Amino acid sequence: MAQVSNHGELKTWLSTTGHRGDLTDEIPGFIQSAESMIAEHVRAIEMVKTAPLVEADRAAGAVYNLPSDFLGARAVTGTQSSVGYALKQVSLAELYRYSLSGDPVVFAVYDRQIEFRAAPAVDAAFTLIYYARPAAFVADADTNSLLTNHVTLYEHSAIFWFHVHTQDLELATAHESAFMDAAQAVNSLAEEVRGAASVADQQNYCSGATM
After folding, report:
1. Would the pLDDT of 162 be above 50?
2. Which of 34, 109, 118, 177 is most buried, most CB within 10 Å of its CB?
3. 104: number of Cβ within 10 Å
4. What is the per-residue DSSP string for 121-146?
């Protein structure tokens, strides 16, 4: 099987695997659909990014705008009395049960925005750790760490859309199932890493508290 390490090689692989030279012009569209499928279902450690949330991001009051490539929150941290702390993510309904006074300790995400309970001070700064949508492939040389480390995500999702187009539903279903299995494995790994980091943070906090 040909090695796939960038956009151009993915297009070549798809054309070769699909055995339909007449669909060459359709292949970029299949890959774009695959990228959307990955953005919807995959939350991998390779997709994690960090961004500051500062006054310039504030939409109004306790509501801040999220980065344009935001897919989901992994963590939000802030600073209180010169000590860093992690905020808790809650549902929007639960958010409004918290007090409006004091420093924000909880947040909710909705409509491409994040809302804290209690409006942060003007000089407040938070750090958002989040899952970001990978940049779309354009040039043949384009690649990313998700493709490098989990190439089957791109292969199965792209060939799935190829077979949907050719109406070979049996093969489409098989590749969709394979993609979902691969996505579940990648997502589980990201959750395991997050869980381990959370335990380490708690241990570090406890060690610091007893010093």
Report:
1. yes
2. 34
3. 21
4. PTT--EEEEEEEPPPPP-STT---HH
